[in-house]
Amino acid sequence: MxxxxxxxxxxxxxxxxxxPDGNAQFRPxxxxxxxxxxxxxxxxxxxxxxxxxxxxxxxxxxxxxGMLTAINLTRHGIRDFVIVEKAGDFGGTWYxxxxxxxxxxxxxxxxxxLLEETGYMPTEKYASAAEIxxxxxxxxxxxxxxxxxxxxxxxxxxxxxxxxxxxxxxxxRGDRLSSRFFVTAGGILHKAKxxxxxxxxxxxxxxxxxxxxxxxxxxxxxxxxxxxxxxxxVGVIGTGxxxxxxxxxxxxxxxxxxxxxxxxxxVGVRNNGPTDEAWFQRLEPGWQEARLQNFTKAVTxxxxxxxxxxxxxxEFMWHDTQQQAADEAEVRELEQLDLQTxxxxxxxxxxxxxxxxxxxxxxxxxxxxxxxxxxxxxYLAAFNEANVHLVDTDGRGVDHVTQTGVVFDGVEYPVxxxxxxxxxxxxxxxxxxxxxxPSGRDGMTLGxxxxxxxxxxxxVLSAEFPNLLIIGTxxxxxxxxxxxxxxxxxRHVAWIVATAEEQGIRSIEATVEAEEEWLHVLYGVAMGLxxxxxxxxxxxxxxxxxxxxxxxxNLVYPGSLTHYVGYLERWRNxxxxxGARVER
Length: 584
What we know:
Blueprint: H1 3-17, E1 26-28, E2 52-60, H2 64-75, E3 81-84, H3 93-96, H4 108-111, H5 115-118, H6 129-142, E4 149-150, E5 155-161, E6 166-171, E7 176-184, E8 193-195, E9 206-209, H7 215-218, E10 233-237, H8 241-253, E11 256-261, E12 267-268, H9 277-282, H10 287-298, H11 312-316, H12 328-352, H13 356-361, E13 374-375, H14 379-382, E14 388-392, E15 400-401, E16 405-408, E17 411-414, E18 417-420, H15 430-434, H16 446-449, E19 468-470, H17 482-503, E20 507-510, H18 512-525, H19 527-533, H20 561-574, E21 580-583
Parallel strand pairs: 2-3, 2-7, 3-4, 7-19, 9-18, 10-11, 10-18, 11-14, 12-13
Antiparallel strand pairs: 1-8, 5-6, 6-7, 15-16, 16-17, 20-21
Helix pairs in contact: 2-17, 17-20
């Protein structure tokens, strides 16, 4: 196909998915669907006495972001902190996601932080969810974080007290915490969402979200095969990264599997395998940081030599096709490289899937940066099995759910179990994902201040919200290896807290002028991305194609993560906290 023909196909596929409601097409796990949000991993009836405490920092979230913030505070000699976590243990997304086949798509030697400090050797190149959750528990033990954690607890309110220069925080357990600093480290892959399909509430069979897997229905466990699905027909809504890992497991266990697809994922080779212990033992001190930096450069077009990781990510992301081109010739060259990557991934579908009609429906027609690439060795081949049925909805999604099945285009597909692999809220308002709306100076809420989109310095500080430190992707960085971003953000936040303590700073927040300057930095870097995004099918990267009124400000730093980190490092090294309003 010519470039013009591929462009036309991209636009045609995108047009099928465009809809005016954007993120509003999904439902939160609340109200009539609150049962979907029940924690399946804790015993019901947990109680404890309320905690009343004054502390240096309250950290919301016990995933990698919150844990790494606490660990970095410890390195600065600050142990006076409290971690508030909804779940029953540390782990964040790796606490909630325990569905069969769940693992990380970034190699464990770069993804799992602090391996040298803990002395841990991952068992496989791509660690399973169970192993990663266990490693989170190991971090909690190694760095003595458990005494600081309030589990099965949610924030009810967080209000800045200008007279006392403290955050006054209440929780669902009746806790009253008074804290100098308030760190939101709620993550982006923790708040599950359901597609707003008519009739879901009428379904008489079993149903759940993959982030709340019910092994009492399927049998098995995160480490054992499912053994209760042999007579059941299973429907899966969603074909993103979760479904790519889940469908092969269901294919081995269920009577029939119906995979309902709006947009196919691009799926490359994973090639997992056990860790070579001899190789691991030969690694020299400092190896993980070097490997981490090498990988991030390799997937952002910086061509490090040697390529230490040399996997599917580095192969397909070796050229950063979102970068700003110098001239028209370079624009065309970058576009051609992107087309070649996607053509190679479509060719793999033909090699893996026997039925030509099914293969065509599984081919991705969008740029490689439009959706997160997937890597798996069994997903495509699963559609060769007689019990696995692809129901391609041509971008529309299913029509409705009945008491006994799922309907598309006038055909009802009977299912006994309906599984939603429909992902998480990523670009919805921060207060919606946190579950509370912080009140800053003069009672202004974050939702009110950010009604037209985010206002921050580096995505971390916000004017009118003293001593509020935000770890999230909006107006901040991102990366293939998300934990690399979280590690750098946690380091930055802990430095701000420690420096404020050392220098007797009562409060720190962004200035309005600095917020606007940072926004224009983001605009400058994003110039090339806007044209690229206009070709993309809707997904969580682009707020389902409808970013809403705040979309112009709710940017993620679109350049290399190393470049974003450079802004943070230069700001810290300057020492003058430029762009911050500081009260001593």
